[in-house]
Design a protein that fits this description.
Helix content is 18%, strand content 55%. It has one helix and eight strands. It has an eight-stranded antiparallel barrel with strand order 1-2-3-4-5-6-7-8. The longest helix has 41 residues, at 2-42.
Length: 226
């Protein structure tokens, strides 16, 4: 009889321990589920890390120019940006083509965001340096012989400037970049096949290169993050 009572008591203790363990597991599961829901509710897609952004200018096509850039994040606050621009157009007169203009530019920006909560997002400032190469042809027609002379000029220039702007990210995929800057440009090399008596102040960059002086840099770009 005593043996049977002891078995019953051990069984009761075992069942009690099982209930306690089960209750603890249920509480742990509910707590984990609550934390998961909290993380889902507080999840911000803007915080997904992105390393790069490719952009295209919406203003440059007005000037018959293709302008693309690539921004690479060094941190939430700092980034580097490489930009390429190319222009190619011709002008025609009554006797056919009389001018051709090719322009290549490379720009390096070092960007500093004023707030560093999210990459690629917010107000920023950036110093920059730009290299410009211009190849210019214009054609002079002799009024007596109708002979056409092709005049070619090549200009290499360096520019240093400063810009500020604001970039906004949408859905962690797309961005809009609006900026304005100023820069000083200086010709570092000039060569031409212009002969004496052919050049005029309007036709030749030699006397007053078009790239020299103070210039403005406004811009509007759209881009994609990846």
């Amino acid at each position: 009889m005593a043996f049977g009572l002891e078995v019953v008591l051990q069984l009761a203790i075992h069942l009690t321990n099982m209930r306690i363990v089960t209750a603890i597991l249920i509480l742990i599961s509910l707590n984990c589920a609550g934390q998961k829901n909290s993380l889902i509710q507080n999840f911000d897609p803007m915080l997904i890390p992105k390393k790069g952004a490719i952009k295209v200018s919406l203003v440059s096509p007005i000037l018959l120019t293709i302008n693309i850039s690539y921004e690479y994040a060094l941190s939430n606050k700092y980034s580097m940006q490489h930009g390429l621009a190319y222009t190619d157009y011709y002008a025609y007169g009554r006797r056919g083509k009389y001018a051709a203009f090719n322009n290549f530019q490379y720009t390096f920006d070092f960007r500093m965001y004023l707030k560093n909560k999210v990459k690629f997002h917010g107000w920023y400032q950036q110093p920059f340096i730009k290299y410009t190469f211009i190849n210019h042809h214009f054609y002079i027609t002799d009024s007596i012989t109708n002979k056409i002379t092709n005049i070619e000029e090549n200009i290499h220039a360096i520019s240093i400037g400063y810009a500020f702007g604001k970039q906004k990210v949408y859905n962690n995929k797309w961005l809009i970049d609006v900026y304005f800057g100023v820069y000083e440009s200086l010709t570092i090399n000039y060569d031409s096949n212009v002969e004496a008596g052919l050049e005029t102040p309007r036709q030749s960059y030699k006397k007053a290169p078009i790239v020299n002086g103070l210039w403005f840099r406004p811009g509007l770009k759209v881009g994609y993050l990846f």
